[in-house]
């Protein structure tokens, strides 16, 4: 007999989970629509070569399809690269789009922490040549709106800029060829202390101890507008062209975020690096903060719930003439948020309805199937959500029990008397009140 | 440079298509919910062995993933087999569920006729041991409701029963080992004339000419209750146990469909066979009928827009102890319906909005970016769908042009005067009326 399970790191969603997830997705999508985004859809499988060389070390996590003759295909790893491919292929230079869909990564699943090999991403991106930092600020506003609306507890949105990071590396004596690898080491600072990051830099990555120490002085800084001003005055950093550009834009970003009234949740954090290769400017990541009343372990496991940044070079990688389309976008980590809300729902003991049925069509005596079929058909045709038991002669008690089990609020009862009188008895399942109509 | 396209038989959906598709999916899902179904979700990839041996000749169309270490996976071919696997794995014996998701087939794409290698299926299924034909009748009611609501034009739902077909084969002298292959030949009767089907039976499938001729007498029959009665009187067919059961249930089905008031669109058609192996009882298929005013070719290409049937043995194939869970279900051919609606939309010249933005925040003079950012932030926080151009100083004409291009009905204008007065000028884009508020 065959083994009966789903693939490693994937799972079924029973109705209660789908109901919760749909509620979550609706909230996210309604925010994306509030910001004027249109939806696109792209295939789950892309040409293998479309995905190669876009994800750095993580390229090995891509699921490839078997060569069954024809093209070599792979499952999409994220929604950003397919979006860039879409823009280049259709020569779109200007678009605000959202895309909610599943992506695939042959990662080591950590299912207790909401990490799976098949999972939803909810992406919002703005493509086009615009004035600096206006779309970037809107992405942060979106993260702020969604996390506030979902009432996940206190959060902070860390912001940095790849140009500032690269500037720091440059003035600390890191050769340009090591910028990306240094970035991925710095990115670990949210999980491990500086000493460990430092020893990885010196050991594995081969930076000099002096360079590592100088980097350490910068990447442990975080703050707001004051820190930006301070770094703009920094004698070495302000001499670096990229860093200066990045800092200038960061200042502008904070100006816009002040007008949006959300700087209270924003932290300019030089340790934020983000793993992916394709970022070129602003990067950001939203993190839930520890709640005092909850279990430390559970929340520590969740951490980042949204992230994104600017990737001005990606579309150009697909364009035959290398034409660039600047982009900035955000991805909401819906699976992690789902894990939190699910834990919370379980803890609260609240039961989510999985159907929307308004009325059960029931009969109290035998041989009334025809009456039930006739009535339910009329209800359906009138757009009313109605069910009946698929038995010829079910007991009334069983029918009312079904209402209670599944949360159906009303029962429409047709018995011999009601049939004779040409009426229906409508019963409120919880109060047991009845009216004939 | 890399090749810039999507995989063969797959496609991107730009915003206008997603908007139309979402409208269609909403109508289908709302019908499923009206009938009390809950949603489940299963992974896109299943274990390879879960899918093998379920689809007859079509097994070769399954997309397999590369062996990258670990389990052998394949992309789902339909939503029915994963549903059966879900029921068996979770020991669910009773469930009414819907599932709207993409499935994958390495078929020869006929994209002009709406046939793709990646496409949506919309499935509704009822699992459980119930009294005969009540869930089956509901599946037909659902097809009737959806096709009526979508206004696709006249249609007919063909109904047959695998037991009746097998009974016909048996009394015509076909050996039981050839029932399935005979089925798939009969199934072609909607596309080719009887003579061709007959010669395939005798030639490729090795039936005797006499058997083929006798089959031909039956499978060219179609009608209603009268035909059922006639076959119940048929001296040979009524002697066959399976056929008799099937005909008895067909009669019961027509009784229920009469109560639903939908027999006008139902045809008991002995030529209907359906390709898949797993059907065990009632089978059905909805076909759009030729419209006189439209292009013959286009509509002929579309044909079947929904189908389904009873599969009482499939769950048992997954259960370690072979326990059966009877199931009946329907799948709506959303991609074909989409093709029709899209052609119709193009023909009508109607333009579907791809965003829902209610108001554009605009400024008539320079240096008013701050005012725009402040106002739009207030609108977003109040739940209003608002956009602005991502330029520091856009021309008012450009801003109003954007409204007209994208169908935004209102513009909220803040100029120097409005700022001084503490008001906003609200402009109706189409009538050009303005109010200060």
TrEMBL record, chains A, B:
Keywords: Aminoacyl-tRNA synthetase, ATP-binding, Ligase, Nucleotide-binding, Protein biosynthesis. It comes from Formicarius rufipectus. NCBIfam families: hisS. It is an enzyme of class 6 (ligase). Its EC number is 6.1.1.21. It catalyses: tRNA(His) + L-histidine + ATP = L-histidyl-tRNA(His) + AMP + diphosphate + H(+). This is histidine--tRNA ligase. One of its GO terms (molecular function) is RNA binding. The keyword Iron does not apply. The gene is Hars_1. Belongs to the class-II aminoacyl-tRNA synthetase family.
